[in-house]
């Protein structure tokens, strides 16, 4: 019986917190409907006079050569990897910032240590030249 | 049980609210294109659009209709599914962020209280970041699917710029969160409205500055519009697009500009707070409407500043952009965060 009671009282609370997100789902449906309608609309309304030249890739008037999907500068990939790395660290700050007043000075010192780790990693990638753009 | 006892009035209320808010953001985005051209004209001592209707006021409608009736071109070498998905995703993410913004306080109709916010969730800011980072997929997919070298290059630039500035943006907000102790935009607004409490920009001027610069970069606005650097890339990541698919890309950019203006107004400038007035003393319904108006005025001022910057500053070079984002804004935001923490713990706790 106590277990049943817990389940019964827990259920509405959980439902109400999930129901906060319900309007977002509604809006998503609304947005998808809007985008789909517009896409179908523009597809049906526009003229369709396809020619081979028109459907070729535009390269400022000259003929386009080869495929665009060639190896790109590694720098872009590096930025993406560093972003993932640092963004995860930034996300760790969020719960701290919300509970910051309650944690007081002891929490601050711990987070300062974490900021220290963050800074060490940051200086490491700068010294390594990962953020050097001009050769 | 809970599902059966569903509040149908709430469903209708939310649907109406969603329809109104999305329509408003679309209309504001449409007229932002008009505003952009008028502001540009004004700054360059020109007249700007003045043919369609009085003062050219119907110009955005004409432009939208034109895009609708244009031929839809999907290049032969492109990936068709992704080519269509790109602009859809850009538009979808632009339309989703408005869900958690508190547009005003509450309306009372009879004994029903209608909140002017689609969803008050306790992770509001994280939701914004989540949706905004989805926006980069629109650019990336659009650029990649076109299979055009210029588009791909622009998309890569755009993507790396957006993710780089997202870091500094995230850190600059942490100092603000230390002040507020909440991620809900509604709570943050109400705190700023409380008597004896000022707008957050007074407590976090540096945080706001960093956030503003990052917002410019996130929206791909000049001086950070490297993904649309037409002088070196022909046009940008949407070069192969035509008809409403191109319209979606252009439109989503303006919606993003509007939404980020509203978010900045909410986080740092009191949201729907009317300055120097104690709202609780007056008729709540009237104050709710005036509050919506106040938020709109603040947002429009921000949009104007965005345009002002675009027509004043030249474009950054790619290495300057990256250096500013990584080597200036991130350390600055970190220092701002630590200083804020020390000051709050020492003097205000």
Question: Can you describe this structure?
Answer:
The complex is a heterodimer of chains A (135) and B (349). With 135 residues, chain A is mainly alpha-helical. Chain A has one domain: NADH:ubiquinone/plastoquinone oxidoreductase, chain 3 (Methane Monooxygenase Hydroxylase, Chain G, domain 1), CATH 1.20.58. Chain A contains four helices and no strands. Chain A is flat, with a radius of gyration of 27 Å. The N terminus of chain A is likely disordered. Chain B is mostly helical and 349 residues long. In chain B, 66% of the residues lie in helices and 2% in strands. Chain B is built from twelve helices and two strands. In chain B, strands 1-2 form a two-stranded antiparallel ribbon. In chain B, α2 crosses α10. Chains A and B meet through α1, α2, α3 and α4 of A and α1, α3, α4, α5 and α10 of B.
Strand order of the largest sheet of chain B: 1-2
- The Cα radius of gyration of chain B reads 21 Å
In total, how many domains does the architecture of chain B comprise?
1
- Total beta strand runs of chain B: 2
What is the ordering of alpha helices and beta strands of chain B? HHHEEHHHHHHHHH
Low-confidence stretches of chain A: 1-16
Within CATH, the superfamily of chain A carries the name NADH:ubiquinone/plastoquinone oxidoreductase, chain 3
- Average pLDDT value of chain B? 87
How many domain units of chain A? 1
Helix content of chain B: 55-70%
N- to C-terminal distance of chain B: 45 Å
Oligomer: heterodimer
Classify the beta-strand content of chain A into a percent band: under 5%
Q: Helix count of chain A?
A: 4
Radius of gyration of chain A in whole Å, from Cα?
A: 27 Å
What is the CATH level 1 assignment of chain A? Mainly Alpha
Largest interface pair: A-B, 69 and 84 residues
So what's the overall shape of chain B?
A: globular
Low-confidence stretches of chain B: none
Membrane topology (chain A): Multi-pass membrane protein
Organism (chain A): Filimonas zeae
Catalytic activity (chain A): a quinone + NADH + 5 H(+)(in) = a quinol + NAD(+) + 4 H(+)(out)
Subunit structure (chain A): NDH-1 is composed of 14 different subunits. Subunits NuoA, H, J, K, L, M, N constitute the membrane sector of the complex.
């Amino acid at each position: 019986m106590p277990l049943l009671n817990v389940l019964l009282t827990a259920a509405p609370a959980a439902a109400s917190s999930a129901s906060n997100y319900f309007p977002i789902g509604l809006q998503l449906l609304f947005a998808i409907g809007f985008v789909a309608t517009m896409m179908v609309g523009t597809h049906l309304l526009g003229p369709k006079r396809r020619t081979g030249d028109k459907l070729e890739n535009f390269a400022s008037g000259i003929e386009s050569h080869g495929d665009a999907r060639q190896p790109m500068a590694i720098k872009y990939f590096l930025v993406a990897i560093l972003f993932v790395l640092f963004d995860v660290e930034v996300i760790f700050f969020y719960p701290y910032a919300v509970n910051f007043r309650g944690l007081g000075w002891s929490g601050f010192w711990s987070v300062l240590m974490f900021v220290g780790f963050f800074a060490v990693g940051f200086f490491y990638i700068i010294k390594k030249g990962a953020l050097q753009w001009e050769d | 049980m809970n599902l059966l006892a569903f509040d149908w009035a709430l469903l209708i209320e939310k649907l109406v609210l969603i329809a109104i808010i999305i329509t408003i953001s679309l209309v504001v985005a449409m007229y932002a294109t008009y505003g952009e051209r008028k502001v540009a004209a004004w700054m360059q001592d020109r007249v700007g659009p003045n043919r369609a209707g009085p003062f050219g006021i119907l110009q955005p409608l004409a432009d939208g209709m034109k895009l609708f009736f244009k031929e839809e071109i999907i290049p032969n070498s492109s990936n068709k599914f992704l080519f269509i998905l790109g602009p859809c995703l850009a538009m979808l993410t632009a339309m989703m962020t408005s869900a958690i913004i508190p547009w005003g306080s509450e309306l009372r109709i009879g004994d029903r209280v209608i909140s002017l916010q689609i969803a008050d969730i306790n992770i509001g800011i994280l939701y914004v970041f989540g949706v905004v980072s989805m926006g980069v997929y629109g650019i990336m997919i659009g650029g990649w699917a076109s299979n055009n070298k210029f588009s791909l290059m622009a998309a890569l630039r755009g993507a790396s710029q957006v993710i780089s500035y997202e870091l500094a943006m995230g850190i600059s907000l942490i100092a603000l969160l230390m002040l507020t102790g909440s991620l809900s935009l509604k709570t943050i607004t109400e705190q700023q409205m409380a008597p004896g409490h000022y707008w957050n920009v007074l407590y976090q001027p540096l945080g706001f500055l960093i956030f503003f610069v990052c917002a410019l970069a996130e929206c791909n606005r000049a001086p950070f519009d490297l993904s649309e650097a037409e002088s070196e890339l022909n046009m940008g990541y949407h070069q192969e697009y035509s008809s409403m698919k191109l319209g979606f890309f252009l439109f989503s950019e303006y919606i993003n500009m509007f939404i980020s203006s509203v978010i900045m107004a909410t986080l740092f400038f009191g949201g729907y707070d009317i300055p120097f007035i104690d709202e609780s003393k007056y008729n709540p319904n009237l104050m709710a409407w005036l509050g919506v108006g106040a938020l709109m005025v603040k947002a429009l001022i921000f949009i104007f500043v965005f345009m002002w910057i675009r027509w004043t500053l030249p474009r950054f070079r790619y290495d300057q952009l990256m250096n500013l984002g990584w080597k200036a804004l991130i350390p600055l935001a970190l220092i701002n965060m630590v200083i804020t923490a020390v000051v709050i713990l020492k003097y205000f706790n």
